[in-house]
Write a structure and sequence with these properties.
By secondary structure, the chain is an alpha/beta fold. The chain has 11 helices and 12 strands. A 6-stranded mixed sheet has the order 2-1-3-5-6-4. The chain has a 6-stranded parallel sheet with strand order 9-8-7-10-11-12, sandwiched between helices. Bound molecules: NADP nicotinamide-adenine-dinucleotide phosphate.
């Protein structure tokens, strides 16, 4: 087989710490190959203390055209950007950057990636609880507001961060210790923390039992599959959505942002082994 990488190959990637679990390389490389583009997509593991030097170093390397950002870097990137889209500015977090003449520019494709699997929901969603207060939680809050959800509560372990979120988005906040009260009469629960990758669940079995029977339980994680949270919710007969749908749609939007072409979304879905309705 002819090697795909040559002297002209350009580079995309995903920067985070850790990134070993990420399925973005599989999804994007399949799409790049399908369209015959002279690009590769690689993992870029960067610990927080090396972030500044990595961002500058990646810009110095002219074949690096853009990358995704994941935990814990979606907010750290903001001071390093020369520009960002209005949506990214509203969210206050960036998950996709691309090279411009003057430096990195960014956008946020998590918002619409999050919304996509919920658009087919026939239910009128009115009350949502978001677990977490990081970059993904901010995108999910903006996504919930775009969906017209009126009553949104962010639940987290840092009161300082929650207070900033409450003011920024005009939503309710709740410390983790009072989660039981926040779960009353909800329509949508979204886990935006990494709790689940370690085989823990952010909700106890008792809290799952307390959810209304029409609750949609949405976990941004996709490893393990199902996550402990979704496993318990499925066992209770609740509607569940895992992070692979969001990964697909945020990835397709990032692909178009970098390359200016329509993403081959069916090919990307096939790479993730998930169904896709065109
Ligand atoms: P982040 O900015 O670092 O935020 C992580 C959040 O989780 C913070 O609020 C953090 O609380 C909280 N947290 C961490 N460990 C916790 C624990 N043991 N108990 C309670 N809360 C805890 O990361 P992010 O970018 O928002 O990403 C969050 C997760 O979503 C990641 O696992 C990421 O892979 C996933 N994600 C998936 C997709 C997708 O397409 N499927 C898209 C975006 C994100 P503190 O602030 O108190 O530390």
């Amino acid at each position: 087989m002819t090697p795909r990488i040559s002297g002209t190959t350009k580079i995309l990637g995903v920067m985070g710490y850790p990134v070993t679990y990420s399925l973005s390389p599989v999804m994007h490389n399949r799409a790049l190959e399908h369209l015959g583009l002279d690009y590769v997509y690689v993992p870029l593991p960067v610990p927080m203390e090396q972030f500044s030097v990595a961002i500058r170093g990646l810009f110095a390397c002219e074949s690096i055209m853009g990358f995704n950002l994941t935990i814990p870097h979606k907010q750290e990137i903001l001071p390093y950007l020369v520009d960002m889209t209005p949506l990214a500015r509203t969210v206050g977090a960036v998950n996709t950057v691309k090279r411009s003449e003057k430096g990195w520019v960014g956008t946020n494709t998590d918002v619409d990636g999050f919304i996509y699997p919920l658009q087919s929901s026939k239910l009128q969603l009115q009350k949502a609880v978001i677990l977490g207060s990081g970059g993904a939680a901010k995108a999910v809050i903006v996504g919930c507001q775009k969906l017209g959800i009126q009553n949104i509560t962010a639940v987290g372990r840092s009161l300082d961060k929650l207070e900033i979120l409450g003011q920024q988005f005009n939503i309710h906040i709740c410390p983790w210790a009072q989660l039981d009260q926040a779960l009353e009469n909800i329509d949508l629960l979204v886990n935006c923390t990494p709790v689940g990758m370690d085989n823990q669940s952010p909700l106890t079995p008792g809290q799952i039992a307390q959810l209304p029977p029409t609750t949609i339980v949405y976990d941004l994680l996709y490893t393990p599959r199902p996550t402990p949270l979704l496993h318990m919710a499925e066992t209770r007969g609740l509607t569940t959505i895992d992070g692979l749908q969001m990964l697909l749609y945020q990835g397709a939007l990032a692909f178009t942002y970098w390359l200016g072409v329509e993403a081959p979304i069916a090919v990307m879905a096939e790479a993730l082994a998930i169904p896709h309705k065109s």
